[in-house]
Amino acid sequence: MRAEKVLILNFGGQYTQLIARRIRECNVYCEILNCRTSADEIKEMKPTAIVLSGGPASVYVKDAPLCDKGIFELGVPVLGICYGAQLMAQLMGGKVSMAQVREYGRVDLTVDNTIPLFRGIDRVTTAWMSHTDSITILPEGFKVIGSTPNCPVAAMGNIDKKLYAVQFHPEVEHTVKGMDIIRNFLFIISGLKADWTMESLVEQTVKSIREEVGDREAICAISGGVDSTVAAVLVHRAIGDQLHCILVDNGLLRLNEAEDVERLLKEEFDMDIKKVDAQELFMSALKGVTEPEQKRKLIGNTFIKVFDREAKEFNKAEFLVQGTLYPDVIESGDEMASTIKSHHNVGGLPEDMHFKLIEPLRLLFKDEVRQVGKELGIPDEILKRQPFPGPGLAIRILGEVTEQKLDILRRADYIVTREIKKAGLYNELWQSFAILPDIHSVGVMGDERTYGETIVLRAVTSSDGMTADWARLPYDVLDRISRQIINEVYEVNRVVYDITSKPPATIEWE
Ligand code: XMP
């Protein structure tokens, strides 16, 4: 059990995850909970502070999400943000109404910097607003501590009870002193210590996995991606040889990828890893298949078949390690679950596989997983890898997937990565890779006419893969990539660059 934590009650606001990120950036542990969690349950969890998130509703409409009023009586400091601020006002006996003038964007906020929440902040500062309702009558015991020209109660507080509410969003960057306000709430008002570090997280996770697993065994499917690798190395630190890793080489990976991951885990970490060569099985499943969704399904099913067969070898294993991250946990509405839980049908695995799941990363965001990986000594080469889709190169070859096409694409893709890395652009891009569109065109090399393959170069910037912009790569980098592909991959006589954003295109071509 962690000693100190902040609980964030989620009212469905678009910035709830961002609030969690900001608190963790202050080296304070926090969790996001469903807003309807009762005050008794919250008390049991012994939070040092509580934050009420924003949300899309109006507090005065029927069915507006509410929280248990009892949380204001726990003696724990509470910070309400936007909807959370309005809810605090309403539940404590104040009034919220539709604002006469709505406020969206940057505003000048005037604060009372003699009170702890705004200590050290200029009297007039820039804040980010996004609201249609406002607090119009203060609850008893509260006073106005911040206002804007159109929002007389932009912040209120009951200083004795340590209850604070802000109409603006301290968690977004546009609120210039937002982090100072969050820090004041955490450290001055709530008395938290900044002691949640990756080192302590690793230590605690290792200890709890060791206790739960005891002398039993676990298996883990390794893909070579960041999440499964970090999860496996972390669990290995806890239970050593009781963990068995399975790396399915489906023949759709990038050049040397399976070998590199196998070598790293075996040699650097001394882990038990079995590389299963299933290339033929995947290729025969994909034979003659051209439809993208069918490709995905076949690859998924074949993976399950192979994993199921291999897992039987470890019939003593009771646990399955998965690299689930916090955003997936929040999305599935499963916030309360702990690191280890029982599960029957996992990620499409056959029903008769009864494993308990170990999900050591389930409370972490992606960048925190990278920090854990660093703490565990995993090299940047793996930790800073760009995302790679589960179906692999199969969805970057349009039409039927064949050994020959895979071979061409692999060599071209290797050159793209090499040149992007050389230009120092690899970590700035969300993804950069080659696609084989199965287009042949006429060219001329030396004195000869050619009729060769086309390679499409795709490079995008993005923060989460949901939307993406095509990368404005320097012309000289484009030129080098094009020339080197033509020089080194003799089947190719033309290289083109995809200049479409997502939407309307997707990042992958299938
Ligand atoms: P799209 O092509 O939909 O991709 O714009 C968005 C992001 O998701 C990755 N991607 C996948 N990842 N299994 C995965 O694990 C998949 O089937 C899959 N399809 C796309 C893609 O690489 C990009 O980062």
Features:
510 residues; alpha/beta; Rossmann fold; GMP Synthetase, Chain A, domain 3; 3 domains; 9-stranded mixed sheet; 32% helix; globular; binds xanthosine-5'-monophosphate
Bound molecules: xanthosine-5'-monophosphate
User: What kind of sheet is the major sheet?
Assistant: 9 strands, mixed
Tell me how many strands there are: 20
Task: Report, as a whole number of angstroms, the end-to-end distance.
Answer: 45 Å
Q: What is the number of helical segments per DSSP (H or I, 4+ residues)?
A: 14
CATH architecture classification name of the largest domain? 3-Layer(aba) Sandwich
Quick one: CATH class of the largest domain?
Answer: Alpha Beta
- Content-based structural category: alpha/beta
Mean pLDDT: 92
Name the overall outline.
globular
How many structural domains in the coordinates? 3
Proportion of residues in β-strands: 25-35%
Strand order of the largest sheet: 2-1-3-4-9-8-7-5-6
| Portion in helices | 25-40%
Q: Please, what is the CATH homologous superfamily of the largest domain?
A: HUPs
How would you explain this protein's 3D organization?
There is one protein chain. The chain has 510 residues and is an alpha/beta fold. It folds into 3 domains: 6-189, Class I glutamine amidotransferase (GATase) domain (Rossmann fold), CATH 3.40.50.880; 198-383, 3-Layer(aba) Sandwich (Rossmann fold), CATH 3.40.50.620; 402-497, 2-Layer Sandwich (GMP Synthetase, Chain A, domain 3), CATH 3.30.300. It has helices at residues 16-25, 39-44, 83-91, 178-189, 198-213, 226-239, 257-268, 279-286, 292-312, 326-331, 366-375, 380-383, 403-422, 475-488; strands at residues 6-10, 30-34, 49-52, 78-81, 95-111, 124-137, 143-148, 151-158, 163-166, 217-222, 243-249, 272-277, 317-321, 340-343, 355-358, 431-435, 440-445, 448-461, 469-470, 492-497. The strands form 3 sheets. The chain has a 9-stranded mixed beta sheet with strand order 2-1-3-4-9-8-7-5-6, sandwiched between helices. A 6-stranded mixed beta sheet has the order 12-11-10-13-15-14, sandwiched between helices. Strand 10, helix 6 (226-239) and strand 11 form a beta-alpha-beta unit. The radius of gyration is 27 Å and the shape is globular. The two termini are 45 Å apart. 39% of the residues are buried. Bound molecules: xanthosine-5'-monophosphate.
